[in-house]
TrEMBL record:
<keyword id="KW-0540">Nuclease</keyword>
<feature type="region of interest" description="Disordered">
    <location>
        <begin position="1"/>
        <end position="21"/>
    </location>
</feature>
<dbReference type="Pfam" id="PF08340">
    <property type="entry name" value="YicC-like_C"/>
</dbReference>
<protein>
    <submittedName>
        <fullName>YicC/YloC family endoribonuclease</fullName>
        <ecNumber>3.1.-.-</ecNumber>
    </submittedName>
</protein>
<dbReference type="Pfam" id="PF03755">
    <property type="entry name" value="YicC-like_N"/>
</dbReference>
<dbReference type="InterPro" id="IPR013527">
    <property type="entry name" value="YicC-like_N"/>
</dbReference>
<keyword id="KW-0378">Hydrolase</keyword>
<keyword id="KW-0175">Coiled coil</keyword>
<feature type="domain" description="Endoribonuclease YicC-like C-terminal">
    <location>
        <begin position="190"/>
        <end position="304"/>
    </location>
</feature>
<comment type="similarity">
    <text>Belongs to the YicC/YloC family.</text>
</comment>
<dbReference type="GO" id="GO:0016787">
    <property type="term" value="F:hydrolase activity"/>
</dbReference>
<feature type="domain" description="Endoribonuclease YicC-like N-terminal">
    <location>
        <begin position="3"/>
        <end position="167"/>
    </location>
</feature>
<dbReference type="InterPro" id="IPR013551">
    <property type="entry name" value="YicC-like_C"/>
</dbReference>
<dbReference type="InterPro" id="IPR005229">
    <property type="entry name" value="YicC/YloC-like"/>
</dbReference>
<feature type="coiled-coil region">
    <location>
        <begin position="196"/>
        <end position="248"/>
    </location>
</feature>
<keyword id="KW-0255">Endonuclease</keyword>
Length: 304
């Protein structure tokens, strides 16, 4: 399963045509805009136009089935446009107008009333408006949900594309952590000869400062301190964490939380390595390791 970033944007537009029982038509433009950013959990801020409140619950269910993490903002625009109008005639009023027109014509010799003139009179003819019948409302809501689902598919694809780029970046960070771990393991300062030379130098320094000190006891204490400063355990754990991180990346899916936990473990081992180090070269490696781990964790925050 591919990795997904938590950052994405999608805009989806569709046309929905409604047909009423009396043959009138209405075309509706449905526009969804959905964006997502990083989030610890899954959260949705939804803006719906008046009259579409009933789709909120199915919309939230669709989102939860599609994504595991991210802060989402979704807004819906519904624009209705009548494409086939009907007309109704007020026949009672029309009859009265025609009678009055005939009377005026016979009494005053006026010209016959024209059809367009009569129909233009207020109340004679009205344009029929398409009513939101239950069936039409249900069809519109179904179209709105379909549009939202397609918008989610688009934003999921955008998040997958960014996830591919993050995968490559995280692979590079893990490779660097592994190289630094191996570099610390092979550092000459960890060789038996280097450790012995440091112990001898430390003991000699102390013996020169105070002749009454027991040389054998000093060597014992120095050896004990050298053992405490050994970083083999930290190096082994770093190897284990590297293997775990690579396994998670190969599996894919919503692994952001797990990788975030691993980044904390990486950081803990890097800190311990620096604190236990008794050689400048090991300390330098530890500091570089901490920098890479910070970069790794920063990128992990973008993963679902």
């Amino acid at each position: 399963m591919a990795l997904q970033s938590m950052t994405g944007f999608a805009r989806h537009t569709m046309q929905h045509r409604a047909q009423s029982r009396d043959g009138l038509g209405m075309e509706t433009r449905i526009v969804w805009e959905v964006r997502s950013v990083n989030g610890k959990g899954l959260d949705l801020r939804l803006r719906l136009p008046q009259g579409m409140e009933s789709v909120e619950h199915p919309i939230r269910s669709l989102l939860a089935r599609t994504f595991a993490r991210g802060n989402f903002q979704a807004s819906l625009s519904v624009e209705k446009n009548e494409v086939q109008a009907g007309f109704t005639i007020n026949h009672a009023m029309l009859d009265e107008v025609l009678k009055l027109a005939q009377q005026l014509q016979s009494q005053h010799g006026l010209a016959p009333a024209s059809v367009d003139g009569i129909l233009s009179l207020r109340g004679i003819m009205d344009q029929t408006q398409l009513q939101d019948e239950p069936e039409e409302q249900a069809a519109l809501e179904a179209a709105v949900l379909k549009g939202f689902e397609q918008a989610l598919q688009a934003i999921a694809e955008a998040r997958r594309q960014e996830g591919k780029a993050l995968h490559a970046i995280l692979d590079g960070h893990i490779d660097m952590i592994e190289r630094l771990t191996q570099q610390a393991r092979n550092d000459p300062a960890r060789s038996i000869e280097a450790i012995r030379a440091r112990l001898q130098a430390q003991v000699s320094l102390l013996m020169n400062a105070a002749r009454e000190l027991d040389e054998a006891r000093l060597y014992q204490e120095a050896a004990f301190l050298a053992t405490k400063a050994d970083i083999q355990e930290e190096l082994d754990r770093l190897d284990t964490h590297v293997a775990s991180a690579r396994k998670l990346l190969s599996e894919g899916g919503p692994i952001g939380r797990k990788l975030d936990f691993l980044s904390q473990e990486f950081n803990r081992e890097a800190n311990t390595l620096c604190s236990k180090s008794n050689a400048a070269s090991i300390t330098a490696i530890g500091l570089e390791l901490k920098a890479v781990v910070d970069q790794f964790r920063e990128q992990v925050q973008n993963l679902e």
